[in-house]
Amino acid sequence: MRWRFFKYLSPFIVFFLALIAFTNKGWVSFLPVLWSFAFIPFLELFLSPTPQNLSIAEEELVKADPIYNYLLYATIVFQYGLLLAFLSSFQESNLSRVTLLGRISSMGLLCGIMGINVGHELGHRSNKAEQFMAKLLLLSSQYLHFFIEHNKGHHKHVATPNDPASARFGENLFMFYPRTILGSYVSAWSIANKEVRNKGYGVFSIKNEMLLFTLIQISFCLMIVYFWGVTILLYYLASAFIGIGLLEAVNYIEHYGLQRVETEQGKFERTLPKHSWNSNHVLGRMMLFELSRHSDHHYLASRKYQILRHFDDSPQMPTGYPGMMILAHIPPLFFYVMNKRVRLLNEKS
């Protein structure tokens, strides 16, 4: 049990592959992408899900072990170290389009998997230091408003028409992208504006967290321009956009077609495990720090990643997150696989 944490070292393989990508040319610059969206989903086609949960005693031991926190903290050092390597890698001359695209895509993968995903995990912690770390990671992906909207908007409105990050039945991913990206951003401003007014300040006060986040992100981009120039800033922003796309594709598969029952006008039943798609496919679980055990995360958002549970009544994805993300980008095939599962769930409800 003491060495159980070793499996969560696997996400750091992506950092290692990214370093290779940023220091080599040609197809090698796509290594992190090939690992994440070719090798892992292929293996998960042949590996059975693992629904087993920890015992109560095991859960207490794992929850108290600080190594699981240290792994998350370490991602900040690696994330910014690799971001620096990425930005500096374009100082080479005569880089081919394949190399440029490979490096941008690989950094985009880091923005999504490490920047936003680990930032999401730390953003649910009550510890101020860990919340600050979450913001550092989200900053690396230019997605600081996620800290506000996800915690105070998405978790409140998930699986209802009021949530821009919950995909509706029959809505394809390419329709979902603009709705969730723009809707979540507007929602974050609405939440932040309401909070700052309740504190007695104006919307344009520096106390407005969204205004502060905006200034920080602009300053971060200006710093990149100062040290590396406008062209490399554009490469970085392209990577951040890829990371945002990965995050929103995850949102799409996590809640597609699931709806909470409206108990009275504007009020909905409590969020239960059945309102989020779950995946027990072990490789995807390890790669994303158990994000794919999403049913338990929404049931009790304060539970740390290493103790998230499987529920028998939570709807199960047919494969892991990497494979499901690929499937979501082929809408007819995604609907063929998932719509019958949604209908079956509705019949049981």
Binned strand content: under 5%
Given helix and strand content, the structural type is: mainly alpha
Topology as a string of helices (H) and strands (E): HHHHHHHHHHEEHHHH
The coarse overall form would be globular
Rounded average pLDDT? 95
- Report the strand count: 2
Task: Give the strand order of the largest sheet, numbering strands 1, 2, ... along the chain.
Answer: 1-2
Instruction: State Rg.
Output: 20 Å
Characterize the largest beta sheet: strand count, sense, and whether it forms a barrel. Answer: 2 strands, antiparallel
Q: Detail the poorly predicted runs.
A: none
Give the CA-CA distance, first to last residue.
38 Å
User: How much helix, percentage-wise, in residues?
Assistant: 55-70%
DSSP summary: helix tally: 14
What descriptors fit this protein?
349 residues, mainly alpha, single chain, 62% helix, globular, two-stranded antiparallel ribbon
What does this protein structure show overall?
The two termini are about 40 Å apart. Helix content is about 60%, strand content about 0%. It has 14 helices and 2 strands. The chain has helices at about 10-20, 30-45, 55-65, 65-90, 95-125, 130-140, 145-155, 175-200, 210-230, 230-255, 280-285, 295-300, 320-330, 330-349, and strands at about 260-265, 265-270.
Topology:
Elements: H1 12-22, H2 31-44, H3 56-64, H4 67-89, H5 97-123, H6 128-139, H7 146-157, H8 173-198, H9 209-228, H10 230-255, E1 262-264, E2 267-268, H11 282-287, H12 294-299, H13 321-328, H14 331-348
Antiparallel strand pairs: 1-2
